[in-house]
Predict the structure.
Amino acid sequence: MKRYYVNMDDVTTVKAWNQFRRWQAERKERLKTKDYSYVVPNVKPDIARLNANRTETTITWIGHSTFLLQIGGLNIVTDPVWAARMATQARLAPPGIPIEEMPPVDVVLISHSHYDHLHIRSLRRLVGPNTMLIVPDGLLSKLRRKGFSIIHELAWWEHITVADRVKITFVPAQHWTRRTLTDMNRSHWGGYVLEHVAQAKKTSGGSDSTGTLTGGGSPANQSSQETVCETIYFAGDSGYFRGFELIGQRFHIDVALLPIGAYEPEWFMSQQHVSPEEALQAFEDVKAKVMIPMHYGAFKLADDTPREALDRLEADRVKRGIARERIHILAHGELWSYAEAFGQSVQHAQAASPKARMKSQ
């Protein structure tokens, strides 16, 4: 029996054909006044530093929703897309790290199956013999058919501990997905919370040499004491929803990677893509210390421009009274260092009730 996935509270992102036609009609006039002259800067990455790093927590923006996360001695890539084009649209700026210069990748995180978040040719070039793919529920079989073998599929709030050092939890988002005419919402969508744990406890469940999977996100067989050194939240694609508050209640997030682009026209996009203002509200909801914006500046997916997204973000930051140093606007290829930003590793003792923090909604 076919399974179809839904959003929290059954919120639908489906649009009628006449709504799509209205957007396309409006778009012809709207784009006549748009200024696409601003291009996200590109800085030369320190490849030697990235290859040598086994201890420092760093975040390097490659472009769109693609990051190289170095945490717990692992190289983790999110939503790998090095494509030169997205449908008929050429890429607006080159990737921050050429794919041939990437360090060996231990883990790839896929938030959902849309083409601007899952590019199979990029994935084939990244994946080595021991690279683990972590994907949403429903996507495993599709990737197996593409020839990938080390795949872990997670439902919302499930987590897997990789190499006894990094606990990765799949968390909700409000979105949808589709790659063909017949597979709409046949796999799920979401974000990931990555916790660098000082000592991860083994749990029961399916496992292999690289990771231990805990079903349902339940830590019933874990110790009630766990020390988390750093926590990164990668939101994937999402409209604004109450799930951001739930994520903020369950985790002590240091850095939130949040989308700010592809929001215009808002009457059409708001249920699937946050606006810059909603991204800042999500930042406050998840209670992160630092925000790094993403999902802008690489592809022309909607009617907003990269400059508009950044200007609206800055105006709302000032309005909300958020300190400038808490919002890090990266260039493509730029590295953000946890130690340089915070001075030292911040440890979050989770001695209270981990079951309460991980209980499924």
